[in-house]
Amino acid sequence: MTTFLSGIQPSGLPHVGNYFGAIKQHIEAVAEGGEHFYFIADYHSLTTSRDPAALRENVRETAITYLALGLDPEQAVLFRQSDVPEVTELTWLLSTVTGMGLLERAHSYKDKLARGIKPTVGLFTYPVLMAADILAYDSNIVPVGKDQKQHVEMAQDMAGYFNAAYGDVFVRPECRLPATDTLARVPGLDGEKMSKSYGNHLWIFESEKKLKKAIGRIPTDSRPPEEPKDPDALLLFDFLELFLDPEELAGWQERVRTGGEGAPGYGHLKARLVEAIDERFGPARERREALIANPGEVDEILARGAERARVRARATRDRALAACGLR
Ligand code: ADP
Ligand code: TRP
Description:
Blueprint: E1 3-8, H1 16-29, E2 35-40, H2 42-45, H3 52-68, E3 76-80, H4 86-95, H5 100-104, H6 107-114, H7 121-124, H8 126-136, E4 141-143, H9 149-166, E5 174-176, H10 181-184, H11 208-216, H12 235-243, H13 246-258, H14 266-292, H15 295-323
Parallel strand pairs: 1-2, 2-3, 4-5
Bound molecules: adenosine-5'-diphosphate and tryptophan (TRP).
């Protein structure tokens, strides 16, 4: 049976980039069958968070987001990373076979340093914890956004180093990226990669008023609607591509390309985008409200998920300890 696993850091409220790059893939993969483990990477968040109350809130909000968007907790194991402390034991074992050089090459570590984040040991060994997450569940497929690809490759390397030293203990995971480039790198409202750290993000459950305001911020130019334009050169169309079905999208592209009398202006396109976002997330917004009103349900799902996840992680941990002579 194929095992899928992925995690998402609860470092803020999930945004549209997280949705298309990660969460949507996870939820859709469940329909393929196999086993599914999705978790909230709260240990990882400690490399950047110093606010316990916000962390607690973001963990809950991330769990609620998955459930509201349709993750079925019966078919997928949804859990909190820190409920499975075995991964920290595996992190240690993997760190003893991993060269400093491998970690020094990590893009995300270098990016974070460049952004002025203090280089703690935890930030440096972040990919080792991530490898432990992946290997603990004998994962075959790890669906992630493009920026996590290198981390998955590092997990492959670490599994290889450990297995070379101690025999076949870990399963080699494969990375799965979103189907298109736009999905793998959703632009923010300013055209850069959407990211909490750039402040250019759109929260999945934004209220209609704020949503309208945010879409209004997408930069356009002063060309009149009648003037023919290349839709591929317009940021607005990157967003429309995410939310419209291909047939409708093609229609708008054609009208913009042709220009003239019936061509839509930017305001018109933005209004359609707001509507389409609301169509996509409206039902989930309602489910989210229901989950917020019933916190016990979320706690119970996470507790059950932790139990199921722990059974697997414990078995892998025991196998690894035995292989290296600690049992
Ligand atoms: P952020 O950059 O906002 O801090 P994270 O690094 O927490 O986002 O990303 C969580 C998940 O969402 C990762 O799997 C990542 O690949 C995905 N992701 C984040 N931003 C985007 C984006 N703009 N486009 C596609 N996927 C994204
Ligand atoms: N580093 C990932 C991110 O920032 C989160 C993560 C932690 C993860 N452990 C993982 C993703 C294991 C996939 C598999 O989004």
